[in-house]
Amino acid sequence: MPPPGRCSRGFAALGRNILPFLGTAALLIGLPSFVIYYASVSALVRGEMPDYDSLLFWANMLVPWLLGTLLQGILVRATILHLAGQGADIVQSSVMALRLILPIFVISLLVALGTGLGALVLIVPGVMFYIAMIVAVPALVEERA
Questions:
Q1: Is the pLDDT of residue 46 over 70?
Q2: Taking the model in full, what pTM does it have?
Q3: Do 74 and 21 touch, CB atoms closer than 8 A?
Q4: Measured between alpha carbons, how far apart are the two ends of the chain, in Å?
Q5: If you average pLDDT over residues 28-43, what whole number do you get?
Q6: CB burial of residue 84 (10 Å; 0-12, 13-18, 19+)
Q7: 47 torsion bin: left (phi>0), alpha (psi -120 to 50), beta (else)
Q8: What DSSP assignment string belongs to 48-99?
Q9: pLDDT above 70 as % of the chain
């Protein structure tokens, strides 16, 4: 059997911290998404169509993305702490992610735009760009680079 590599260490960190990681994801993504989608369906049942200038439309677009960006920063930092031999402290990781929320969001936006533009040219450049940039947020969180 081959020695454990980086991938197995990452899955081990996930396995050992599954409840805090899932709880954080449910709190930051599941609950707000449920509330927004419930409000959207309620508006549709009442016969209201959300326009591009409605608060519900923009909440549906931006809130999951912003909270997903925050979640990414929290989980990256908690995994790094776990792999360093410390406990995966969700509170400390949340504080660190909140400090870096603006740079993480900007990186996320730039990666999305670059991937989209690359996919418009041809599919392969978009995929190549995304694969190259997939380590940008972990590099920011750990090294502040």
A1: yes
A2: 0.79
A3: no
A4: 36
A5: 87
A6: exposed
A7: left
A8: PPPPTTSHHHHHHHHHHHHHHHHHHHHHHHHHHHHHTTS---HHHHHHHHHH
A9: 92
